[in-house]
Amino acid sequence: MSLNCLLSAHTVSAAPKEQAGNNLPQIDTKYQPLEVFAKSLFYLETMYVDEDKVKTDGMITNALKGIVEKLDPHTVIMPKKAFEQLTIDTQGKFGGVGIIVSQENNKLIVVSPIEDTPAYVAGVKSGDEIISIDGTSLAKIKASDAVDLMRGEPGSTLKLIVRREGAKEPIKFELTREIIKVKSVRSQSLAENILYARISSFQENTGEELGEVLKKNTGLKGMVLDMRDNPGGLLDQAVKVCDLFIDSGVIVSTVGRDRSKIEREFATKRGTYTDFPIVILMNAGSASASEIVAGALQDHERAIIMGTTSFGKGSVQTLMSLPDGSGLKLTVARYYTPKDRSIQAKGITPDIVVPYKKVVKTKDATPPAADAKTDRKESDLEGHIESQDLSDIAKETDVAHITEKWPEAIRDDNQLITAFTYLRSWFKFQKGQPSSGSK
Questions:
Q1: 189 in the same domain as 174
Q2: pTM score
Q3: DSSP state for residue 126 in the 8-state scheme
Q4: Which residues contact 279 (CB under 8 A, 6 or more apart)?
Q5: What digits encode the pLDDT tens for the residues 143-173?
């Protein structure tokens, strides 16, 4: 039906009884504001001075945006392109060359190439600065647009030019795009049967990926689960991750519009790992699904939370596709931890607060100037003798020789080093080394 017909129908329906006839039903007052809306659209479309600014599709989209903006920050109208991208992100696969990037000082820097992808095989390295994509200089486009340019149909060609530290000239790459499957779980053995596992986001197979990691690492004595800067993702995957470590009880409760109906997800005993301690790393970038996991394991006293207070997103969203290909992401429920805590706008408070800071290991580094108010220590005295470890126990507690063998990306991570140290200390307090198991 055209806009003019819609207005006409409303006009007839709104006519007084004596003109329209007593047999016509009265307008439901619920829909009377739509008459105002439709007439306003008509006047704008037919009379506004700049015709290009008042296209019907654009005005309706903007009207919907205005509606959802008054609701909450997570209920949004998503343009077709953004909606498609979000769907791709939750599936964990896309057409591209396999480069994880970040924007640093207005530069697009390669964080790392994904293993066994075209970029990895061609020799793109961590730290490379991407300066051109298919002949387009990155000085002229946004970082988000640059990522879109690198993605495309499998089999198509992508030309990159990067600037690498130590190289005299920029390096050129010609890569063929393919389907890239992004793993949401990455792991690394830290030493002494302590596992480090990082969940970057909760995608379709996150629970299965972490389960496979645990199966491969038998005899675990401890685990560091890193969910820092994890923005969340799929609720069901957060439940599956929790179920790997909790053998009974509530994992999460959700309450929607009808507050009398509470939906609860419960843990199952089968396939659960309960025989080793866990330290979870969190920060202000940890949100939503990652907070569900942290809150559940904290309430069940299954893990120690370390780091800083999380973001505090205690709501659940669902995606609805719209006829034009765009999408509506809307908040449908609030979630609660097993002890019925809401973390909305509060966050998960860590059991042990450890702010992040870069570890400096260089012997020649200049120490910071002493604060005049700080008490002087032995190490401040000129000519002090150097300390020496005389016992085997003291040498064993020094983790420096262990962390030096870690991958460079995590070697200087003070929060991870602290978590690793706590787990090693836990073994000593327990006077034993528990073995892991699956029930």
A1: no
A2: 0.76
A3: T
A4: 222, 223, 224, 225, 303, 304, 306, 419, 422, 423
A5: 768 888 898 888 999 999 999 999 999 999 9
8 Å CB contact between 223 and 278: yes
Query: What are the backbone dihedrals phi and psi of residue 234, each rounded to the nearest 5 degrees, phi first?
Result: -85, 130
Catalytic residues: 288, 299, 313
Q: What is 335-355 written as a DSSP string?
A: EE-TT----TTT-PPPSEE--
d(CA 299, CA 304): 10
Q: Are 183 and 112 in contact (CB under 8 A)?
A: no
Structure tokens at 359: 């570890």
C-alpha to C-alpha distance for 103 and 132, rounded to whole angstroms = 14
- Specify burial of residue 190 (Cβ count, 10 A radius: 0-12, 13-18, 19+): buried
Q: 69 and 137 in one domain?
A: no
Q: How confident is the model at residue 3 (pLDDT cuts 50, 70, 90)?
A: very low
Statement to judge: residues 336 and 259 lie in one domain: yes
- Domain assignment present for residue 393? The answer is no
Give the range of the structural domain holding residue 120, as residue numbers without chain letter. Answer: 93-181
pLDDT digits (tens, 9 = 90+) for 255-302: 999 999 999 999 999 999 999 999 999 999 899 999 999 999 999 999
1 DSSP assignment: -
